[in-house]
């Protein structure tokens, strides 16, 4: 059974392959709290989290040890790290408890020019993260993440629409990405 669906992100020819993001809900169990990612390094690529810009993420898996130190796995980009890593682990049978991503509705952010492109900040504090399933995502905007085209998550749909009105893009809910 092929769970994968491909959404063309458009900017720079990036392609985001997203599917089957959560294979179940942790409705009966207490969810772990997001952790502070300041000074940490990406589980998948070993990149420093924070200085590159854009949304960060962390995934807690049930009965799995994504890092030698245990849960969570953490990421400095959603498009190029979190989702590819997550899909690979789903294919291996790992069961996610919760996926947290930066919620730009919780952040007082400023889009700044860096390396010739507008960039989002990269907050790392626990209170800047939200459950990925309850957010909307802006793709194909002019605003880049740490490694180029990015997904910009928002819990407030009106804020996401305002972002699109200013920087372009399309809005997807979590299920639309999966």
Could you explain how this protein is built, in words?
The protein has 178 residues and is an alpha+beta fold. The chain contains 3 helices and 11 strands; from the N terminus they run E-E-E-E-H-E-E-E-E-E-E-H-E-H. The protein has helices spanning 78-91, 157-167, 174-177, and strands at residues 5-8, 15-18, 57-62, 73-75, 95-102, 112-114, 117-119, 129-131, 136-139, 152-154, 170-173. Strands 4-3-5-8 form a 4-stranded antiparallel β-sheet, with helices on one face. Strand 1 (5-8) and strand 2 (15-18) form a beta hairpin.
Low-confidence stretches: 1-19
* Rg over CA atoms: 15 Å
Instruction: State the distance separating the first and last CA atoms.
Output: 14 Å
> How many β-strand runs?
11
Counted by DSSP, the helix tally is: 3
Largest sheet properties: 4 strands, antiparallel
What share of residues are in beta strands?
25-35%
Shape: globular
Q: Kindly report the spatial arrangement of strands forming the biggest sheet.
A: 4-3-5-8
| Structural class by helix and strand composition | alpha+beta
Helix content: 10-25%
H-E order: EEEEHEEEEEEHEH
Mean pLDDT rating: 82
